[in-house]
Specification:
510 residues, alpha+beta, six-stranded antiparallel beta barrel
Length: 510
């Protein structure tokens, strides 16, 4: 497999670079898809079927990246074992494709697993005729479970306006508040006046194609860095300590970077926005800043003091402070007092960033609630003695408190509480995932043994061996162990096999 290294973050200019269009050999758009890993694309099976029999018998479809101008089209084929064609009632309809070349620098779709989501506002991007280069549907809403066995979620488009229709199949359905991908468009309701369509949620996709689970994770973090507003003390030593504290908060809530190595403190007094930006570059190597912002923006921290004494305070904010934040750096803005010029704008930005983090936290709490529910169900079916942690109620209370803070609470306090609550929610979600992963193979083994025991018991019954005392003496302890110790299937494995061998001997002797 060839690796393509043409992607750069600066050229991407797209918050969803994983969006792709699938084409047939003539260049006709078949539908949409999502890059998951560097060489893996998720789409609907019927989109691949639209390319014809050749694509289903080992042939290739073309994949075009939508938001990355200049990226080459790549050929792709169905991955063995990852093909689930649509059933008559619509269930299934999932395919993973292997790209002929890898794209390691293109971020994959941020899939998240939720239960029966409803009332969430989403957007998606598809390729209905004649829009060969695609079109957005914005502000659609998830209405709740639908389809056979409740495997779909109804998606309502706002009318009048563009609606989800033929050409959107395979497209990622993106949560407007967080950018997380909640599922994949699968079909439309053909009445154009209704604006209805359906999606397959990530949970169902992973159930049909377990390999997809490796790409299911947390909601994406806001790309913009935090703005910290400080009134009064502009002493450099105090600012440096404050910056270090804020960066520690970011690393508590996210992945560790390279360390506290990129810091600049710039006094904006009497300076223009361009002069402040120049002083930032002088305080930190421009090359270092560019590299760190691309890989570990939490390692870049800049304090801009005396903003209210700058030549044009709001221009310093919009021309020097905001570009740094938008690239992911932590920025501390220091003002002399509560009536300082530019302070209201900075406070608004500070609150907006908290609001974005709050939306992500709300989705995390929903994810923890869902993981608790499904892990409890599995543990209950197994009679597992290990307790399932129940942290979602506490997280839900803390989320409610943060939502009600409004303007009554200092944004800095809200930011710190958000960081701690995010960390706790992420930890709870990961621990539940580990527990569920541990229980799944036990449940499968239990079901396998139980089915084997019942199957051979049915064979014995059909052969007139219901009254066979020896078989009864072997069957009872095997079934009792499976019933009373369902979380320890291997304890019953030997007993089941003894019964199976005995039935076989009887049947062969007959």
């Amino acid at each position: 497999m060839r690796e393509h290294n043409g992607f750069t973050a600066g050229r991407a200019g797209d918050s969803e670079p994983w969006r792709v269009c699938l084409l047939d050999s003539s260049g006709r758009a078949l539908g949409a898809g999502m890059l998951l890993g560097e060489s893996t694309v998720l789409t609907c099976a019927h989109v691949v079927q639209a390319a014809g029999a050749e694509a289903l018998s080992g042939g290739q479809v073309l994949v075009r990246f939508v938001g990355l101008p200049g990226m080459p089209e790549a050929q792709a084929g169905v991955r063995p074992g990852c093909w689930v064609p649509p059933e008559e009632d619509g269930r299934g309809d999932i395919a993973l494709l292997d790209l002929a070349e890898a794209f390691p620098h293109v971020p994959g779709a941020p899939l998240v697993r939720l239960g029966a989501v409803r009332d969430r506002v989403v957007h998606t991007y598809g390729f209905p005729h004649p829009h060969r280069h695609g079109v957005w549907v914005n502000d659609a809403e998830l209405a709740g479970p639908a389809g056979a066995a409740g495997e779909w979620i109804q998606l309502n488009s706002k009318l009048p306006g563009e609606r989800v229709r033929r050409g959107f199949s395979g497209a990622g359905v993106i949560d407007k508040a967080t950018g997380a991908v909640l599922g994949m468009v699968v079909t439309e309701y053909t009445d154009e006046r209704a604006g209805l369509a359906y999606l397959i949620p990530v949970e169902v996709i992973a159930r049909h194609v377990p390999e997809v689970a490796r790409w299911v994770g947390e909601p994406p973090r806001p790309s913009a860095g935090p703005l910290v507003v400080l009134l009064g003390n502009g002493d450099p030593a105090h600012l440096d300590r404050f910056l270090a504290q804020v960066r520690r908060e970011r690393r508590v809530a996210g992945p560790a970077g390279a360390g506290d190595r990129l810091t600049a403190i710039v006094d904006a007094t009497g300076k223009t926005a361009d002069e402040v930006a120049e002083h930032v570059s002088a305080g930190i190597s421009t090359e270092e800043v560019t590299t760190a912002l691309a890989a570990h923006p939490e390692d870049v921290a800049v304090a801009v003091t005396g903003i209210d004494a700058a030549r044009a305070p709001e221009e310093v904010l919009t021309g020097a402070v905001k570009p740094l934040m938008d690239k992911g750096a932590t920025v501390l803005a220091q003002f002399g007092g509560p009536d300082s010029p530019g302070l209201r704008l900075a406070r608004r930005w500070e609150s907006e960033r908290n609001a974005h983090r709050l939306a992500r936290l709300a989705l995390l709490v929903e994810m923890v609630e869902y993981e608790e529910d499904r892990t409890r169900q599995l543990a209950g079916r197994l009679g597992a003695r290990a307790a399932v942690p129940g942290r979602s109620a506490d997280l839900r209370l803390r989320l409610g408190a943060l939502r009600s803070a409004g303007e009554r609470i200092d944004p800095g306090r809200v930011r710190r509480a958000l960081a701690v609550t995010e960390r706790d929610a992420e930890t709870a979600w990961r621990e539940l995932g580990v527990l569920h992963t541990d229980l799944v193979p036990r449940a499968r083994r239990h079901d396998e043994l139980h089915g084997r025991l019942r199957g051979y018991n049915a064979k014995a019954t059909a052969a007139g061996l219901m009254e066979d005392e020896e078989l009864a003496e072997l069957y009872r302890p095997a079934m009792e162990t499976l019933t009373t110790r369902p979380d320890e299937p291997e304890a019953a494995a030997g007993l089941v096999e003894r019964y199976v061998r005995a039935v076989r001997r009887r049947l062969e002797g007959a």
